[in-house]
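I hope you will forgive my troubling you with a question about protein structure. You will find the record immediately after this paragraph.
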Amino acid sequence: MIVGIGIDLVTISEFGEQLASPGTAFGSAFTPGERRDAASKTGGEARYLAARWAAKEAVIKAWSGSRYSQRPVLPENIHRDIEVVTDTWGRPRIRLSGAIAEYLADMTMHVTLTHDGDTAAAFVVLEQEAQPQD
């Protein structure tokens, strides 16, 4: 059963400027693995990380949407606890840690990333196994 969806769009050029700014909050938003992967990709670090930022935001939106009319329970700065990893063929998956991993332990997350011109986008579906009815 789908319990939440999230989508986010990022303008790559603007994101790149913010990423390069001294003292940027984006410095701590990415895991060492995401930074390492970004450095090894052609096409630029900003392009790669913009899609990862969109995925992190889409995860938060999907989770938030699954809690409609309920108080948020996650800390403000959880982006580093949401990691985008890829398999050998470049297919993305979300790896969670910290508080968000505990809250979403019984959920399955589906993610897709895309780039078009100066835009990076991510779409996330949050799914929970249907509970049997008594």
Observations:
- The longest strand covers residues 2-11.
- Residues 27 and 43 are 20 Å apart (CA to CA).
